[in-house]
Amino acid sequence: MKVIVTENKIQGGAKAFEIFEKGIKNGAKVLGLATGSTPETLYQNWVKSDLNCEDLTSINLDEYVGLTPDNPQSYHYFMQKHLFDKKPFKKTYVPDGMAKDIPAFCKEYDQIIKDNPIDIQLLGIGRNGHIAFNEPGTPFDIGTHEVKLTENTIEANARFFDNEDEVPKSAICMGTANIMQSKKIVLMAFGEKKAQAIKEMIEGPVTEQVPASILQKHPDVTVIVDKAAAQELDDKYKN
To answer: What does the record list as GO biological process (predicted)?
Structure first.
C-alpha cells in the first residue's frame, strides 16, 4: 500500500482527483465510485476541472434498500448532485434499491462488473473497518449481496436523516471479491474517528473482522488520509 498523508480533507480530495485524472488520461474507462461525506472534496475538484467524462462508465459500490432514486438520501441522488449532473458520463450504474428480486439483481450487478472491469475503484472506510457496506464478518469471497447494516453503521449514517428510525436497515453492495478485482484502488479517510480503522487496515492481520484489511493483498492500493486519520500509524507511513 502507498500511504499519502495530507493536512486536511481539502488537500486529500485534491490528491485523489490527481490520481483519477492521471488514470483517465492514461486510458482508464471504468471507474468504481463511492458516496458519503468522505469523497465530497474529490468530487468538488472533479466538477471544477475541465475533465471530459463522456466516454467514461461508472459503477457505484452500494445503495440503500427501499430508497427510490429521487430520494434525497439515496446514493443515486447523491451521485447526480455531486458529480453526474455537472459531469455527464457515458453510462452510470448504481444498485437498484427498489429491486423486487434482490438476489437476482445482485447476480445482474456482478455481471455488469464482469463485463466492465473496473480500472480505478474509490473507497472510504467505516470506523469498524468496513468497505462499502461489507461489515465485519463478511466473507472475503462474496460478490454483490444484500447486507443488514450494523447498529454502528446505522448510527453513523443517522446524521443524514431526520432521525435514526428513518435510516434503512439494509443495503445492496458490491462484495469484497468485486472490489479486489479492480485494477487500482484509492481509499480515502479523514478525521480521528477513522484512525484506528486505518491502523488495523494497514498494520493489522488480514481478517474478515476488519474487511478493509484484505486490501493488503491487492497489488495497487493508494491510501489518502489526513493527519488526524493517520495519527495511529507507525511513523514510517507518515513521511
So the answer is: carbohydrate metabolic process; glucosamine catabolic process; N-acetylglucosamine catabolic process; N-acetylneuraminate catabolic process
Active site residue 166: no
DSSP structure class, residue 1: -
Q: Which residues contact 78 (CB under 8 A, 6 or more apart)?
A: 35, 36
Active site residue 218: no
In the set 60, 128, 134, 157, the catalytic residue is 128
List the catalytic residue out of 60, 130, 134, 208.
Answer: 130
Sign of the CA dihedral 205, 226, 87, 132?
Answer: positive
Among the options 45, 60, 62, 82, which is catalytic?
Answer: 62
Is 110 labeled as catalytic in the residue annotation? no
Q: Across all residues in the chain, what is the average pLDDT?
A: 95
148-202 pLDDT per residue, tens:
988 877 888 788 888 788 888 899 999 999 999 999 999 999 999 999 999 999 9
